[in-house]
TrEMBL record:
It comes from Saccharothrix carnea. Keywords: Glycosyltransferase, Transferase. Gene3D superfamilies: 3.40.50.2020. This is Putative amidophosphoribosyltransferase. The keyword Hydrolase does not apply. The keyword Glycosyltransferase applies. Belongs to the ComF/GntX family. GO terms for molecular function: glycosyltransferase activity. It comes from the Bacteria.
């Protein structure tokens, strides 16, 4: 045990932690970057009601990317706590909702060591089920426009029959970022077709510039 403590101290001395949002040395996450994430605000647009905690830019974007792509898995606890605080404030959700993470492409999830959104959902403390998956043929949407994203997902979001919430349970779809809303619409459509009520979609960030947090 003592050896482990000493090893940890040496690692911190040789490789001091840095905030993944702004790069500040000596802290794993600084208060200024954490404060960029507020309470859920409605994201303008048609389709299911989508709420986000921050704008997808600057340090907030860097935090999401650090968690998603750069191996900072400890941020699951941070984002899970933000989700835990936000879900009860979503309109129409009611008590004891379940979380359904938005799916990731299988190859992307493998590269990340598993679904980062599922990890965040479980860290929130809410009951969580990976009820959705992408079928084969879904491309990386990063460089696709709104119309192409919609075509990319058409008919390729499927239910996972063994991972459904109890009948009648309200569900919040959870994701890390909303851009055009295509993923949210496709996922909610599949859930609703299965008789699952989805009163809200919650994302950490929104790429739409009209978000009140930036």
């Amino acid at each position: 045990m003592v050896a482990g403590i000493v090893a940890g101290m040496l690692i911190n001395l040789l490789f001091p932690p840095r905030c993944p949002g702004c790069g500040t040395w000596g802290v794993r996450l600084c208060g200024r970057c954490l404060a960029l994430f507020g309470m859920p605000k409605r994201v303008p647009g048609t389709g299911p009601p989508v709420f986000a905690l921050a704008g997808y830019g600057g340090a907030a974007r860097e935090l999401v990317l650090a968690f998603k792509e750069r191996g900072r898995r400890e941020l699951a606890a941070v984002f899970g706590a933000l989700v835990a605080a936000a879900v009860p404030r979503l309109p129409g959700v009611g008590p004891d909702p379940w979380l359904v993470p938005a799916p990731s492409r299988a190859s992307a999830a493998r590269a990340r060591g598993g679904s980062h959104v599922l990890r965040m959902a479980r860290a929130s403390g809410f009951s969580t089920v990976p009820a959705l998956a992408f079928a084969r043929g879904v491309r990386d949407s990063a460089r696709l426009d709104a119309a192409s994203r919609q075509v990319n997902l058409a008919g390729r979001v499927r239910l996972v029959p063994d991972c459904l919430p109890p009948p009648g349970t309200p569900v919040v779809l959870l994701d890390d970022v909303v851009t055009t809303g295509s993923t949210a619409r496709a996922c909610v459509s599949v859930l609703k077709a299965a008789g699952i009520r989805v009163p809200a979609v919650l994302t950490l960030t929104t790429a739409r510039r009209t978000h009140p947090h930036g």
